[in-house]
Design goal:
- It holds the Pfam family SPRY.
- It comes from Basidiobolus ranarum.
- It is found in: Nucleus.
- By secondary structure, this protein is mainly beta.
- It is 3% helix and 33% strand.
- The chain has one helix and 17 strands.
- The strands form three sheets. Strands 1, 2, 4, 9, 10, 11, 13, 14 and 15 form a nine-stranded mixed sheet that branches. A six-stranded antiparallel sheet has the order 3-12-5-6-7-8, with no helix packed on it. A two-stranded antiparallel ribbon has the order 16-17.
- A hairpin with a 5-residue loop joins strand 16 and strand 17.
- The chain is globular.
Amino acid sequence: MMCSHETHSAPQFKIASDGLSLWNEKGYRLSKATHGVEYGAWYYEVEILPHTGNTRIGWSQISGDLQGPCGFDRFSYSYREKPGSIFHESVGKQYGDGAETGDVIGLLIYIPELSLDEKRDLLSRRWSLGEKYIEYSYFPTNFDESKDDPSLVTLPKVEKSQIVYFKNGECMGVAFENINLGKYHPAISSYKGGRVAVNFGPMFKYPPPSDWLDTPIKPFSEATEMSPEEVPEPQPLVEVKSLEANSKPFKRSGTSSSCDFTGSEDGSTTRRSFHKRRLVQKSQSRSPSISRELY
């Protein structure tokens, strides 16, 4: 289901009690599902519900900025409902002919089996109980703070990985290739009332192909659940904001940033104000240069 935990959803998002329908009345915000995947072929559906705003749907790592649209930064990839276009790192391009109320968009992510080095990279990002949660940062395990330039650090790519969209069962083609290494969650962005309903399967209105690049496609409902011991105990917060409760709420922790985005329909995004807020757990003795993933 979609998750209202502060590491997963902007507080402006409204999530229904079933965890599957969601909307937001403000500028673009981001909400992520409780689960994420590292490799394999995975699929979920999104139905466009009646609304007057806009939506962007896709995949995001846990570090994706909650106070902006999916596809705003290097941690997320998205498809915009109208006009039809795709976004990554705030760069958009035309893709398909858009979607309307009642259309069902299928989202497929394919990530081939990871190498040992790639698995070690993901392991180094894991967030352990009691550590600081570091947002919007990435440094490889061999990064040397004394001599390496952080401005030149980029996320490693996973060769032959793909993100593909379907509209009412028809494939719209490969949207993204060689995506950044990471653990990806289904992600929804809503603008000025944009409203959708997600379906993680296993029963889909428009079932996907049985396999993709010789890899069986799995419904996202089979994704492994987050281990309870990896959800941190609540700590006093500098600033507390109300969240729409899900049927299975998570303990409060993590980070959020507070800013307001307004997106014009030509795809441009303007940041009107910015104030980053970090909610800190007690730190253990571990290098602060490695970004943490909530697994």
